[in-house]
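Quiz preparation item.
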């Protein structure tokens, strides 16, 4: 089973939510790799995981707006 299918099944979320989760997690990992190892290693992640860009776009689309409405808003 693929990563999105596993996340969806294990967490009980739909495929779009699972893609957003994967995108968010991989963006954090890629940022850490870039910081600790270097930009070449971070770019290798893009090549190794071609779906990552799309998942990161899905994550950005699902992110709540930063215009308040949170606990403090």
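Solution:
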């Amino acid at each position: 089973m693929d990563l999105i299918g596993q996340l969806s099944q294990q967490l009980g979320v739909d495929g779009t939510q699972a893609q957003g989760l994967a995108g968010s997690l991989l963006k954090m990992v890629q940022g850490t790799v870039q910081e600790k190892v270097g930009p070449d290693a971070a770019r290798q992640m893009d090549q190794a995981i071609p779906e990552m860009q799309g998942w990161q776009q899905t994550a950005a689309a699902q992110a709540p707006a930063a215009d308040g409405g949170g606990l403090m808003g």
